[in-house]
Specification:
CATH class: Alpha Beta
Largest sheet: 9 strands, parallel
Shape: globular
Number of helices: 10
Distance between the termini: 20 Å
Mean pLDDT: 96
Strand content: 25-35%
Low-confidence stretches: none
Oligomer: single chain
Number of strands: 24
Radius of gyration: 20 Å
Helix content: 10-25%
CATH architecture: Alpha-Beta Barrel
CATH topology: TIM Barrel
CATH superfamily: Metal-dependent hydrolases
Number of domains: 1
Structural class: alpha/beta
Length: about 375
């Protein structure tokens, strides 16, 4: 049994000031208020990132061998204890090899490393808002191909307005795959039909979709008004303006927003075979198109707090909400019985240390 004390402990019910988290091996035994002197730090649940294309100089799609160990270290240093390696649009026959590598990486012994919850396929069944995706590889949903997807796939982002799009949503949802709507020009009716068929997430809200219209609300209108849909947001303040970030949190309410990084291997200078450079706070193609981010989840939480979102809500968006979307009820919260994934934040909310299943993995 070990005890972590802090000036603040973020729990599902609120923030204890001060509090303690008791760890019993890999499980949280208790979370309680305390008295006396405690370290000037904040304890929060391990972060859960639904969309990681890579980081620093490593691309998930080509990661092999030691690349996965490097990703482990990079992610846990930003407080991420569970994540979804994300593959962007590619030819249909180009997914088998990287999905196999992700499956092998997910099967490694825990050893204090961030756990892979499953792969996120962002494409190739996208719509007419490709962003940095290769337009020539975007195709309508292929139901036979989807039926053959390996179990490692946990999230699929698609455009419901494509032929058989809603049918694809229903087929994936029936398998327990989280279906996200994104890179899409769907109108409100298509988006609501997809939600009715089982879609549960909207990928990086506001980006790669038409703006909200007061007469034609489209996908953004559905995302903000439909309680069946959680929205993901890239809170680097380059993808979404601070005022709009606050608007989304207010519209969706507690539990309606999941923060993602959409991080890429920006230092490599290329993503999915395309040249990129970091300009104005984010990786971009030569024409200025955003191509993922160089955001960390710790910075995403800090940015949210800095623009006026309360700490409890911001932390839940980085932990409890995405964990719940993935059906991982054993993590994403500091509560008795949950997996002992804990992150220590300093006074400036910078990530200082992280424990994965009770084992200190950073700091």
């Amino acid at each position: 049994m070990s005890t972590l004390a802090a000036a603040a402990v973020v729990t599902p019910a609120g923030v204890l000031r001060p509090g303690v988290v008791e760890l019993d091996g890999g499980v949280i035994a208790d979370v309680a208020p305390t008295t006396g002197r405690v370290p000037d730090r904040t304890l929060v649940p391990g972060f859960v990132d639904l969309q990681v294309n890579g980081h620093d100089d490593v691309d998930v799609s080509s990661a092999v061998g030691a690349d996965w160990e490097r990703l482990d270290a990079l992610l846990v240093a930003q407080g991420v204890t569970t994540w979804c390696p994300t593959l962007t649009t590619a030819p249909l026959d180009g997914y088998a090899a990287p999905l196999d590598r992700i499956g092998h990486a997910a099967a490694r012994p825990a050893d204090g490393r961030p756990r892979i919850a499953g792969a996120h396929l962002e494409g190739p069944f996208l719509g007419d808002r490709p962003g940095a995706h290769r337009r020539e590889w975007i195709v309508p949903p292929d139901l036979d191909w989807l039926a053959r997807l390996p179990d490692i796939v946990r999230i699929v982002t698609l455009a419901p307005e494509r032929p058989r799009g809603v049918e694809a949503v229903a087929a994936l949802a029936a398998r327990g795959v989280v279906v996200a709507l994104g890179h899409s020009t769907a109108d409100l009716e298509h988006a609501e039909a997809a939600a009715q068929a089982g879609a549960r997430l909207v990928t990086h809200l506001f980006n790669a979709m038409p703006a909200l219209g007061h007469r034609r609300p489209g996908l953004v209108g559905a995302a903000l008004s439909d309680e069946r849909l959680t929205v993901s947001l890239i809170a680097d303040l380059a993808h979404v303006h601070p005022a709009v970030l606050k608007l989304a949190f207010r519209a969706k309410g507690p539990g309606g927003v999941a923060l993602v990084t959409d991080a890429v291997g920006w230092r490599s200078g290329r993503v999915a075979g395309r040249e990129i450079a970091v300009r104005d706070g984010a990786p971009r193609l030569p024409d200025g198109t955003l191509a993922g981010s160089c955001l960390t989840m710790g910075q995403a939480v800090r940015n949210c707090v800095d623009v006026g979102i309360d700490l409890h809500t911001a932390v839940a968006a980085a932990s409890e909400v995405p964990a719940r979307l993935l059906g991982l009820d054993d993590r994403g919260r500091l509560a008795p019985g949950a997996v002992a994934d804990v992150v220590e934040l300093g006074p400036a909310l910078d990530v200082r240390a992280a424990w994965v299943a009770g084992r200190q993995a950073h700091g």
